[in-house]
Amino acid sequence: MSVLQTLRLGFVFPLVAMLAACAGGQATLEEEPVPLGDFLLGHNIVLAENAQMAPISRRAEPEEWVEALMLAMDERFGRYDGDHYYNIGISVDGFALAPPGLPVIASPKSVLIITVTVWDDETQEKLNEEVKQLTVFETLDGNSIIGTGLTKSREEQLQTLAQNAAFAIQNWMVENPQWFGIVSSSSLEADAAEELPDEEAEALPLVEPPEEA
Asked: Mean pLDDT for the chain?
């Protein structure tokens, strides 16, 4: 599915966007950051020159996306105090900022599509072999259930999408703890299971074969 097709999905089918937004949510920065091992934010890079704007959208300039996303990433990931630098690169692929629409019937929902790469600052090695594409919808509440085009300014929509994008990136990184020196309990159990047969074999007494009659 192309970027523009994904953008249209959020506009033509508002219910899809609403369900995705409600499912994803936005973690408040007042909560303690989820563990990310030895993570320490290094370079925070955002590119938006090639972003595609949906046919139905409020306008936003590339520099606005760069500023909003860099701020949202600094706010979320600047809280970590590990001892190993990791760099995060974001490319804005496309967006749609909902304009005022028809209440309830056809109020579109704002959407942002980005691709993300994380790499080790020391080794310059990319941690995800393929870029990760994320589609982020706006957060809905009692005031915006019929579309933020009616209740929020363009700047507020852009800021909310940037914050939700940073949260989505965090969730994706948490799903890959091995990148940040975290050994999961499942990995330890798997290693133990692999070693167990050899240990049991060593413990078994040797049995001489029976003599032929």
From this structure: 79
DSSP-derived letter for residue 205 is: P
Q: Distance (Å, rounded) from C-alpha 138 to C-alpha 151?
A: 13
Nearest to 118 by CA among 70, 69, 180, 74: 180
Q: What is the pLDDT of residue 201?
A: 40
Each domain of the chain, given as residue ranges in start order, spans: 3-182
CATH (one of 3.40.50, 3.30.160, 1.25.40, 2.30.130) for 3-182: 3.40.50
Tokens matching residue 11: 């506009």
Q: How many helices (DSSP H) and strands (DSSP E) are in the chain?
A: 5, 5
Task: Tell me which range, 8-17, 34-43, 181-190, is most confidently predicted by mean pLDDT.
Answer: 34-43
Confidence at residue 146, expressed as pLDDT on a 0 to 100 scale: 52
Phi-psi region of 84 (alpha: psi -120 to 50; beta: other; left: phi over 0): beta
Summarize the chain as % helix, strand, coil (round to 5).
40, 20, 40
Tokens of 130: 């393929």
Here the contacts of 144-148 (C-beta below 8 Å, separation 24 or greater) are 145/18, 146/103, 146/104, 146/107, 147/14, 147/98, 147/100, 147/101, 147/103, 147/107, 147/108, 147/109, 148/98, 148/109, 148/110
Q: Residues with Cβ < 8 Å from 42, sequence gap 6 or more?
A: 85, 86, 87, 88, 121
Residue 13 predicted with pLDDT over 50: no
